[in-house]
Amino acid sequence: MSSRPNAFKGSNSARFVKNQMTTNYRNTNDYRQQNNRNRQQQQPEDPYVANNPMLNDSIQKKELVERIDHIDSIMGFDRLEHGENDGNKPRKGWLINMHATTIPTDDYLAGYSGVDYYFLDEEGGSFKATLQFDPYFFVDVLPGDHESEVEEWMRKYLETANVKSYSRVIKEDLKLPNHLLGLQKTLIKLSFHNIQDLLAARRLLSPIIKDNQLKKESRNMYTFKEIETIMDPSVYIDDIREYDVPYHVRVSIDRNVRVGKWYDVYAKHSKVDFVEDKEKIAFADPVVLAFDIETTKAPLKFPDAKIDQIMMISYMIDGLFTIFNEPDEKHVLKRFFEHIRDVKPTVIATFNGDFFDWPFVENRTRFHDMDMFEEIGFAKDNEGEYKSKYCVHMDCFRWVKRDSYLPQGSQGLKAVTTAKLGYNPTELDPELMTPYAYDKPQLLSEYSVSDAVATYYLYYKYVHPFIFSLCTIIPLNPDKVLRKGTGTLCEMFYEGHLLESETYVGGHVESLEAGVFRSDIPTHFKIDPTAIDELLGNLHNSIKFCIEVENGKKMEDVENFDEIYTQIESSLLELKNNPSRQEKPLIYHVDVASMYPNIMTSNRLQPDSMKSEEDCAACDFNRPGKNCDRRLPWAWRGEYYPAEMNEYNMIKRTLQNETFPGARPWLPPRTFDELSYAEQAAKIKKRISDYSRKVYHRVKSSKVVTREAIICQRENPFYVDTVRSFRDRRYEFKGLAKVWKGKVGKIASNDTIARDEAKKMVVLYDSLQLAHKVILNSFYGYVMRKGSRWYSMEMAGVTCLTGATIIQMARALVERIGRPLELDTDELKGFELKRRGELQLIKNFQSDIFKLFLEGDTLDTCYQAVATVANNWLDVLDTKGGMLEDEDLID
């Protein structure tokens, strides 16, 4: 159990909520003078404006929104405020992007929160629609009908936070004891005009809730009665719920809006409504621009934006390349920005653009006294990534790292192009780029164009369908879907030892045989006759399962059942009568379809179903003979420091008598108790690690313990139902992809337009099923992800151990009738050394030797062919690469 003293344990708010409210208001006269200098205009002295910081803040927001609207209009995204036919005729659009915004209004000075939705229409045009939505969170109150008192208290206490409205909602609380009887909880819903007000209210409530939860741990039946007589209703506030859901995610969930889908957009007097068009599935065609920059650089150094210049920008939109020759770098950038404004791309693709191309362009733009945001609407956000409101920035390198499954050393653009697109792009030594700009500009331009083309087709073939298919499921914009991630810290104990980490024993991986196995080389088999007897005994049921479950047919529809049964039976008997065999093998990849999701659905495994004996004891369904508590084993593994509890306490007392440097160099020293929780944990772990190394001669010990989990079969199955729904939808899309593949084959070869449309549908449905597969396989990993809303190590452990048991059971049967080679609960992939170095000789060795495993017609001749190449590379090692050029040795 975590000992972290955190009132909001397990919350994601640290990732989503950044409080940047300024409380030290500047002198308004200086503030106004600065604004006058920046905007080259005089504003009249107004005491109300000068002394109202909220109004000053709203002016800034209003100006930012106006700048964004101006850029959006230049790029073709005018706001739809009133539709045709007095707003009753909708405008159809494909949603490509969405961003939170502030809607300026005369009714409320700070403005309303809303979301800008960016659409592409059917005729190739574009527009945006702004949906106003009140942000909210819930306040959880202790049992006892205290909602009215707490609400009345909050109306006074949160007066400065400008709460828009209070209301009551009834929710099902899965943590409520005995909630299976239908017990529900009443929550107070606080709605706000904008996010800033919500954060202000949360900041006011957080200290009170933290204090209440600390007191709650020591509260018993006597102290609880004392609470009844307390006049301060704030003690009844137990927690706040759903405060950490990002605003645009909240709106998308509540209004059921997703990027990548078609909508009929109704707009009447700035009031907007969306209705999904479920008949229209095919994606719209956004304008995609992929670009790559070439810069000057000093010999043997990386490019530096402070001194180096951009000498070429290659970008691909569609069709043939056109060359623009400009006199200097400033005009190159101006031409690039001008062309972006002309073609109005809605997706810009780069390769590692977040960390090289965009920062370099921005710095050089600033050097020439231009503003990249004013030019094309792109700027760096607080996460260091380059984004804009109207246009999606797809950094293909992010996709390569997360979704391509390529090894670390093969994630450069050249290697990715070779692996994914099947051709070798033009290569050029970085040291030759600047000299070639003077001497061989044609070769340099070919290289630069090659990178832009590779990025364009990598995006269009892999990244585009995959990311936008994910967007139809996940309520995030494409930029966020491409770049998601998380992490946290915890301190725990195991049997009196400080626990360094705890987890569960994962999937089962076993390599049983090594060697060359080919279907054209005879191999020795030894069949177990008793295994054949078992197969014969289950043969009728196995064939019936194949017909009814796997193929969805009825037994009555099969006309030759007896014939097939006899044929299989005679084959099995022949194996039984001749158990020792030498023959050419068939190599099978046995895969359990959607194993982890099916384990979860069949056992109703979900985080909230993991119960303790205390939970069962308090439940009304806890009766003799009950079958709602399925008990399954899982293997817990912990790594802990060998120091005992008394030694831990001794070390902690020693630290409490020491002083530590201040948080800043100019601040006074701090005692141990004045350190933050994370700093205390780090100091203790470091001191115990040193102590264990010195006294026990080892830093950590590990232990595996088999534990039993209780899975409630009556629990609200929201998580299991979601998994099942994703699985079924994935099968549906998989089936549709097969249907459209069949349609492509039936379309006449001269009907180019129809074939292209059919191929697009194949790619669409294939991408949709892949997106569902990725998320489906993430439901299992999610529950062990640090910071996840539904966290359960037990559930992950049960899922893994059950999967490992299934694999081992399959192995036990297969090894009696064949030769199992390798087991893995994840997946089986081709062999490749996983390395972080860029040794070209390793790549060359692999490419040379793999193809030779197909040589020869016996194992001896196969190994002789492989040995020839192996000897050559052994000579390279013996001579330390003396006969190789540098480019053959290092990439």
Give structural attributes.
891 residues; alpha+beta; DNA Polymerase, Chain A, domain 1; Nucleotidyltransferase, domain 5; five-stranded antiparallel beta sheet; 17% strand; globular; disordered N terminus; nucleotidyltransferase; single-stranded DNA 3'-5' DNA exonuclease activity; nucleus; DNA replication; DNA binding
Overview of this protein structure:
It is a single chain. With 891 residues, this protein is of the alpha+beta class. Among the domains are: 11-282, DNA Polymerase, Chain A, domain 1, CATH 3.30.342.10; 288-482, Nucleotidyltransferase, domain 5; 512-592, no CATH class; 840-889. The strands form 8 sheets. Strands 3-2-1-8-9 form a 5-stranded antiparallel beta sheet, covered by helices on one side. A hairpin with a 2-residue loop joins strand 16 (492-494) and strand 17.
What layout of secondary structure does this protein have?
Blueprint (H helix, E strand, L loop, with lengths): L12 H4 L11 H12 L7 H4 L2 H22 L16 E13 L8 E9 L5 E7 L3 E6 L5 H11 L5 E9 L13 E8 L2 H23 L3 H8 L8 E5 L5 H9 L6 E7 L2 E6 L11 E8 L14 E7 L12 H15 L3 E4 L2 H15 L4 H5 L2 E2 L5 E2 L4 E4 H8 L9 H9 L8 H10 L1 H31 L6 H5 L9 E3 L2 E8 L4 E3 L11 E4 L2 H9 L1 H12 L10 H17 L2 E4 L11 H8 L7 E2 L1 H5 L11 E12 L4 H12 L2 E2 L9 E2 L5 H19 L5 E12 L5 H29 L5 H31 L10 H25 L4 E3 L15 H11 L8 H20 L7 H4 L2
Catalytic activity: DNA(n) + a 2'-deoxyribonucleoside 5'-triphosphate = DNA(n+1) + diphosphate
GO molecular function: 4 iron, 4 sulfur cluster binding; DNA binding; DNA-directed DNA polymerase activity; nucleotide binding; single-stranded DNA 3'-5' DNA exonuclease activity; zinc ion binding
Protein name: DNA polymerase epsilon catalytic subunit
